[in-house]
Amino acid sequence: VALARAVLAVERLREDLALRPDPVLGPGTCSVGVIGGGKAPNVVADAAWLLMDRRLLPGDGAASVRAEVEAALVREGVHDVRVADCRVGKPPLATPASCHAVHACRAALEAGGLPGATGTVAFGTDAALFAAEGVPSVVMGPGSIDQAHTANEWVEVAQVQAMARFFERLLGSDA
């Protein structure tokens, strides 16, 4: 029951995050992805746990996210659940539209008759790790994020072929 209240506290935290968007990246997000505990349906669980994901914004880190989750639990009156571990994965990526990598990608897309519009997305990628090391980074690829990382993940062959032609244009190939 305590863990169920903690799940509701995480949901309210998600609602709070939506009210504090980054001007470029939008709001941080959080969601409960895995819940576990107990030994049998007819035995009161002596322990239960959950794993949650918190998408980071500039300025977020392990300490601030941990404090944010702990404060959300307290605000919701959840005093019998503790935050055991707080691991921060990929940092946020905010490549400015003026970056030469963005311009080069847009030009290669448009040269192939594809839209060169830019935008933001609410998912993490390794690109942020490269950007943190000074490598200009842009995230793009074939398919839809709605199909990515799902049980039935797929992408149309034509989209993969279009992406291959994009890379040829980007890299200056005549192939």
Describe the structure.
- With 175 residues, this protein is of the alpha+beta class.
- The chain contains 5 helices and 2 strands, in the order αββαααα.
- It has helices spanning 2-18, 62-75, 100-111, 127-132, 157-170; strands at 29-37, 48-55.
- A two-stranded antiparallel sheet has the order 1-2.
- Helix 1 packs across helix 2 and helix 3 (100-111) crosses helix 5.
- The mean pLDDT is 89.
In percent terms, what proportion of residues is strand? Answer: 5-15%
Number of E-type strands: 2
In percent, how helical is the residue content?
25-40%
Structural class by helix and strand composition: alpha+beta
The whole-angstrom Rg is 21 Å
Q: Stretches where pLDDT falls below 50 for ≥5 residues?
A: none
> What is the terminal-to-terminal distance?
61 Å
Q: Work out the helix count.
A: 5
Mean pLDDT: 89
Shape call: elongated
Summarize the helix and strand pattern as letters.
Answer: HEEHHHH
Largest sheet, in brief, is: 2 strands, antiparallel
Task: Please state how the strands of the largest beta sheet are arranged side by side.
Answer: 1-2
Topology:
Layout: H1 2-18, E1 29-37, E2 48-55, H2 62-75, H3 100-111, H4 127-132, H5 157-170
Antiparallel strand pairs: 1-2
Helix pairs in contact: 1-2, 3-5
